[in-house]
Design brief:
This is CoA transferase subunit B. The structure is a single chain. The chain is about 15% helix and about 25% strand. The protein has four helices and 13 strands. Strands 4-3-2-1-5-8-10-11-12-13 form a ten-stranded mixed β-sheet, with helices on both faces. The mean pLDDT is about 90.
């Protein structure tokens, strides 16, 4: 079976470390805020000028003026700071974000990412993605492994306009956890119940499969 959106967020949350400053992109990445391990101090940063995002609000705690870069309502943790988007991008461009989690349309074996434009389709746009991929060394892409038509999104070469070149090293899809190294995807983990054969079939770019590929565990 494929991973749910929440399971993908839970798996990404395992990559968090105490003291990290983390930027979460629109879509599945925003859900990571709900799965920060208990007792861990992580400061979530948003391009619109919030450092210290908490989980999504309940109906009782919602504040329509407290939003993230994707215009979703959010909460703020103790010690949060609110500032201008100019200062927020200075933080991003200055390399002060420890981990960035982004969505994507395509990723290829050279670590290129396409995430902002599909010709003849209305897309939200670039947002802060181009700055984030340029300013961060540690980036995780979260996306479905294939399109609704069954076409692979893990390619030998991206077909869409690029957001960044050679910047992606880790990819989590609804089927697998992969790392990019030496011009290939390396299969590290697979979703529960998903076969290696299915992952091979749905990966267009070069894929290296170790002798043993463990299943992800979710309690």
């Amino acid at each position: 079976m494929t991973l749910s959106r929440d399971q993908m967020a839970m798996r990404v949350a395992r990559e968090l470390q105490d003291g990290f400053y983390v930027n979460l992109g629109i879509g599945i990445p925003t859900l990571v805020a709900n799965f920060v391990p208990e007792g861990m101090e992580v400061m979530l940063q948003s391009e619109n000028g919030l450092l210290g995002m908490g989980s999504f609000p309940t109906e009782e705690t919602i504040d329509a003026d407290m939003i993230n870069a994707g215009k979703q309502t959010v909460t703020a943790v103790a010690g949060a700071s609110i500032f201008s988007s100019a200062e927020s991008f200075a933080m991003i461009r200055g390399g002060h974000v420890d981990l960035t989690v982004l969505g994507a349309f395509e990723v290829d074996v050279q670590g290129n990412i396409a995430s902002w434009m599909i010709p003849n389709k209305l897309i939200k746009g670039m947002g802060g993605a181009m700055d984030l991929v340029a300013g961060a060394d540690n980036i995780i892409v979260t996306m479905t492994h294939a399109s609704k038509n069954g076409d692979s999104k893990l390619l030998e070469s991206c077909s869409l306009p690029l957001t960044g070149k050679g910047c992606i090293k880790k990819v989590l899809t609804d089927l697998a956890w992969l790392e990019i190294e030496d011009g290939a995807f390396i299969l590290k983990e697979r979703a529960p119940g998903v076969s290696v054969e299915e992952i091979i079939e749905k990966t267009q770019g070069k894929l290296i499969v170790p002798d043993h590929v463990p299943e992800m565990q979710f309690s």
